[in-house]
Input
Amino acid sequence: MYTLSEENYLKSIYRLSQQPNFKITPTAIAESLKNNPASVVDMIRKLTEKQLIEYDKKKGVKLTPVGLKDAVLIVRRHRLWEVFLLEKLGYHWDEIHDIAEELEHISDATLADRLDKFLGFPEYDPHGDPIPKANGKIPKPYSVTLADLKTGDTCRVAAVKDTSSSFLQYLQKLDIGIGTSIKLLEKISYDNSLVITINGKENTTVSQKFGENILVD
Amino acid sequence: MYTLSEENYLKSIYRLSQQPNFKITPTAIAESLKNNPASVVDMIRKLTEKQLIEYDKKKGVKLTPVGLKDAVLIVRRHRLWEVFLLEKLGYHWDEIHDIAEELEHISDATLADRLDKFLGFPEYDPHGDPIPKANGKIPKPYSVTLADLKTGDTCRVAAVKDTSSSFLQYLQKLDIGIGTSIKLLEKISYDNSLVITINGKENTTVSQKFGENILVD
DNA sequence: ACATAAAATTAGTCTTAACTAATTTTATGT
DNA sequence: ACATAAAATTAGTTAAGACTAATTTTATGT
Ligand SMILES: [Mn+2]
Ligand SMILES: [Mn+2]
Ligand SMILES: [Mn+2]
Ligand SMILES: [Mn+2]
Output
């Protein structure tokens, strides 16, 4: 149906479209795919031809209904495979993204649905991201970050916004995973660093950027 | 490591090398991959450069030790994924080959071994083909075909040589699968057609070609 | 309003892996 | 031994998807 590149572009555009009030420009897509903007302009042309996206110089790139539907299906496959790799094959959560990045492109009409059933219809992937259902419906994503909390609040880690190995390994070192309980003790007003307690243990200080990449419940 | 095409060529050359006394020519590879011989000549050059094969106009194409090792690993991945698709996701044996044809190219250092473990270290794939071990050792493949039997012999279906949908669906219709018991009642001397009893039920006549594609125990 | 910077686009190049058509080499039958 | 057929190879083309470098368009600060 689609080429590997087309699918990666669709997924990247979808991901960017999740940031509210964000204009999806060729440069933004290029950064997200680590591609050259010139290459992106070519692909924008191709996907526009195929009626998967619309490009308005003022409003940026937008997925058409068809493009959106198919982008969501790719995300569905990605996240289902991530669950499989972690739950069934015993990978750690910082190893699964890159492999799922390849597995998501396996095209077979019933594969995703069979995998979904085999895994017990999981609602969230190992990073806490919602797994779109076969009909395209998406469980509510988490939206409050650790950085949004008030001093004294306690929360449960629900998801991570950044799935890079370096971030996930840092979390591992801090003993933070999905479900971990965190209490915000203090916000350093100088640079918005956060002083937190992890699972009731000793205090740690993390950066604002760190806090913005943790979604909580 | 390798491109998709390189891997498909390696695997195809390996498969052809399994036929004893068969000279692996550009034309043979082209047929097996449904490619043009001119394209094959290009790839032979490339794989020779990379020291994965040797090409002697007299002896044809041969895998080098490195090429053989890696071809076997691709076959290993293919057959493990086939087991997964059948056993865990409930596909039928005529649906799995094409999907495994894509899955076999997923490159991750530990994926095959984890999958192997998850599946309980199966020795044979759903078509009865031996699954190479992580160290490259290959369980003994079956070699006697239904057409090799003498009149009156009874056997167990161990593997199929042809994994095309049309052949497998024909088998399905005849109620033949791995493990089915078959008795050879008569060999028609005119065209070597075979009269057989399947699982002790009514008689059926099949062609010589059919018999040559069933490996028995 | 204008200089300058940033972003977008165009033009042209490269690589991979296919193809067709033409040519050369090898095999085969009489 | 030679004609003919088949196989292998070469030469040239194409398409996808990336790139760089040059140019044009748009945004921004003074
Ligand atoms: Mn991908
Ligand atoms: Mn994920
Ligand atoms: Mn393949
Ligand atoms: Mn098989």
Summary: The longest strand of chain A covers residues 154-160. Residues 65-88 of chain A form the longest helix (24 residues). Chain A touches chain B at residues 88-91, 98-99, 102-103, 105-108, 111, 114-115, 118 (CB under 8 Å).
